[in-house]
Amino acid sequence: MIRAEGVGVEIDGARILAGVTLELDAPRVAVIGANGSGKSTFARTLNGLVTPSEGSLEVAGVDVVRSPKRARDAVGFLFSNPDAQILLPTPAEDVGLSLRAAGIPRAEIPGRAAEALARFGLAEHADQPAYSLSGGQKQLLALAAVIARGPRVLVADEPTTLLDLGNARRIGDLLAGSGTGAEQVVIVTHDLELAARCDVALRFAGGRLVDRGDPGEVIARYRADVA
């Protein structure tokens, strides 16, 4: 699902990512590393939020460099702060916006939005102000809006960072399990317990991919390096 060859990113003359080469078809991918390691930049290249300065990148059969709009249709992105992607006043309207963007016929949108909200336990909050939701409910809403579009790949960038333990566990269960419906989920996280639940782990340091493999083994080497 993800094929990268020599991917690099340079922003304002600074090298943020360099020489990333990999091929991944694992259903659940953890991306770990220290702050500033390049892991979030890598995640943002996967759906065209950040354009690689060099190399080639294909995700879900889409050339991300040549077709960033198609990449955004195929690859959903969940931010750490849901307030960054909740755009309309109520949950029903916000999910409806995502469905319209996906080209869903207008007549089908209310029913599809209701189904999406029910799937994530938000049915009774459909018409209340989105700002009044709890942090966990907001993240569930953001996830519902992304998943409603039916992306083949879902990228979640530190999705549990702002959540309490209970909500972090719930979001983690959805992402690490089969609750999203996406063929592949990429989770950028500092939560090493969540990372350990994935099929493969990538570790970034200094803008480079420095380790990959079994999550338990990659995490153990990471812990040893920072001890």
Question: If you had to describe this structure to a student in words, what would you say it looks like?
Answer:
The protein is an alpha/beta fold and 227 residues long. It has one domain (26-36, 68-226): P-loop containing nucleotide triphosphate hydrolases (Rossmann fold, 3-Layer(aba) Sandwich), CATH 3.40.50. The protein has helices at residues 39-45, 68-74, 91-101, 109-119, 135-147, 165-176, 192-196, 215-226, and strands at 2-11, 14-24, 28-32, 54-59, 62-63, 75-78, 153-157, 184-188, 200-205, 208-213. A hairpin with a 2-residue loop joins strand 1 and strand 2. The longest helix has 13 residues, at 135-147.
Quickly list its features.
four-stranded antiparallel sheet, Rossmann fold, 227 residues, 8 helices, six-stranded mixed sheet, alpha/beta
Quick synopsis:
With 227 residues, the protein is an alpha/beta fold. The protein has helices spanning 39-45, 68-74, 91-101, 109-119, 135-147, 165-176, 192-196, 215-226, and strands at 2-11, 14-24, 28-32, 54-59, 62-63, 75-78, 153-157, 184-188, 200-205, 208-213. The protein has one domain: P-loop containing nucleotide triphosphate hydrolases (Rossmann fold, 3-Layer(aba) Sandwich), CATH 3.40.50.
